[in-house]
Design a protein that fits this description.
Length: 287
């Protein structure tokens, strides 16, 4: 299962897993696509067994799955999609996205510019069993991605509604400003992100990619809606080695440095998290 709101989120090597039924085309294709699904349970990273989706939202007295419907259209540089996720008596999450590749330049090796906007609407439904209910909130984001000869520059911004944090225990964030540690999805937070990556294949280093990303979020700390947690910054530096042919094909080495800061006042951080991560994956060919 891989959708904007529910997905494996395997960046930390232990992916989320899901149980249920899915109706979708066997192969993704251009043009109109669709999906309908009912998932009964999922397995979080830190547990050995599966739990219900309502339990994942902190509702001990409920045992509900999630009903998912969605459709997308892709053609002539356009990618348009919408999906909805309904969990009985707790939460409904709707997502929409429009992405467009600007039509200039016919050379595959030339510059390209892609622009996109998305919005996630989240609100309590039915018996409103989730903590803090009833409420309605949202997270909207926009981005521009430019690329040229292996160099990719991304600029993005996002805004989260002031009624509540975005609940997303079932996958990676839909926001374009999402980073490794924070996704700037706390209530009433505005965020900005800049990301620069470079593929070193043109320099003779096939499969080597360098990336740097910086994001900043700010808002109004509120104990009732965001736990007093608003202003924050994060810097991510990443080295990736992933050869596409030869004896090492299937190997992926990723090394990351993360610096995340939380601010109680405009100048001095109250909390500072530094992390180094190293991940090595190798897909062994059996045939």
């Amino acid at each position: 299962m891989r959708t904007p709101y529910i997905n494996p989120y395997d960046i930390r090597m232990i992916p989320l897993a899901f149980e249920g039924v899915v109706l979708a085309p066997e192969h993704r294709r251009s043009g109109l696509d669709y999906m309908a699904s009912y998932l009964t349970r999922y397995k979080p990273w830190d547990q050995g067994g599966f739990i219900s989706f309502s339990e994942g939202l902190g509702i001990a007295e409920s045992d509900e799955g999630v009903l998912i419907t969605g459709a997308s259209y892709s053609a002539n540089g356009w990618n348009i999609g919408a999906s909805n996720y309904w969990i009985k008596d707790s939460l409904n999450t709707a997502y929409g996205e429009i992405d467009y590749l600007l039509p200039f330049g016919n050379d595959d090796d030339g510059p390209s510019v892609r622009a996109g906007v998305n919005i996630l609407d989240q609100r309590t439904v039915g018996a409103d069993l989730i903590a803090g209910a009833p409420y309605e909130t949202y997270q909207a984001s926009a981005r521009i991605v430019t690329s040229y000869r292996g160099l990719v520059l991304t600029g993005a911004m996002s805004k989260t509604g002031d009624a509540a944090d975005i609940q997303k225990p079932f996958g990676y964030s839909t926001s374009y400003t999402a980073l490794v540690v924070t996704n700037f999805d706390q209530a009433d937070v505005q965020a900005y992100l800049v990301r620069l990556s470079y593929d070193l294949e043109r320099l003779g280093l096939e499969g080597v990619r360098l990336e740097a990303a910086w994001g900043k979020g700010s808002g109004t700390p509120d104990l009732a809606t965001n736990g007093g947690f608003a202003d924050q910054e994060e810097l991510d530096l990443r080295f990736v080695y992933e050869p596409h042919r030869g004896k090492l094909q299937g190997l992926r080495v990723e090394v990351e440095y993360i610096d995340w800061q939380v601010f109680d006042n405009p100048t001095l951080p109250s909390d500072d998290l530094d992390q180094f991560r190293a991940i090595v994956n190798y897909a062994v060919p059996l045939l």
